Request: fold
Amino acid sequence: MRPEERIFRNFLVSRDLRFTPEREVVLQEAFQRHDHFEAEELLSSIRKKRKRTSRATIYRTLELLVQCGLLEVVDFGGSSQHYEHVLGHQHHDHLVCERCGRIIEFTHRKLEKLKERICQEMDFDGRFHTLKIFGICERCRGDSQR
Amino acid sequence: MRPEERIFRNFLVSRDLRFTPEREVVLQEAFQRHDHFEAEELLSSIRKKRKRTSRATIYRTLELLVQCGLLEVVDFGGSSQHYEHVLGHQHHDHLVCERCGRIIEFTHRKLEKLKERICQEMDFDGRFHTLKIFGICERCRGDSQR
DNA sequence: GTGATAATTGAGATTGAATCTCAATATCAA
DNA sequence: TTGATATTGAGATTCAATCTCAATTATCAC
Ligand SMILES: [Mn+2]
Ligand SMILES: [Mn+2]
Ligand SMILES: [Zn+2]
Ligand SMILES: [Zn+2]
Reply:
């Protein structure tokens, strides 16, 4: 059994919830992807495969997957929420290209240190953070203009 | 004339737009506030003062104020967009208390440096960034538990 | 002034993501 | 098998935000 299924099942059991076929489909579809995805995308992929689901179940299951720590919500400022995997991915932040929309992930040890320091200086008990840098990616600069 | 009005007027002229009474009201109301505010809040304040406005004009004017650099959109992940002043405020980032909802602003020189460095290392032309740290503020910890 | 031209407004309609409702089903433990 | 509980989905609802468009207002050339 895939680790995400194991985790999800345990979570459901611990909450007296059930691992239903519908939830299984959402789990599979969510872990088939490896980018930042939206609920409506999942819905249409699942529909294409002619599997049974409803919009309500998708949204409800995504919420459960976030609660059990398998997924995280990522906000890129658009009109809809995006999700990404937590399992198997270390914490990272994002560069967002304003021209092509590409999302580039990065991690930087110094950032984590700096966050600690800021929290200490501000007397704040920081739990997690998000840093987004908006700009133009190297592809869009096209080897020419800087 | 207040600097924000000067700037807004110049911007409007440069775009062949007009400084109308309706736009003036929105400008005034937006600069009367000194926190992070929502469009609907502005609308109801203005309505209370029995000044004429429509929802459409509020949203349209806020967009203009963002375009001319007087305001900035700040996203705290809620259901609606927030705005804050740019004029008279240096760039800063936010601590968000998950218990009481308080927003605390901070600036850190090292953060700007680090951002530069990250962009360089990632070959990314970063224009601006937002860092949000979520956690519990010192008030909510209440001098006791850490 | 006068009229052509363009900008503006606001009431209300529309959009679209997300959530909610609730009757019909499914699941599980005893 | 039975009763308690969880689940589902079609469709309604919410709500911020945007759009529509006819009526109004400002601006400019003559
Ligand atoms: Mn990511
Ligand atoms: Mn701020
Ligand atoms: Zn790009
Ligand atoms: Zn607090």
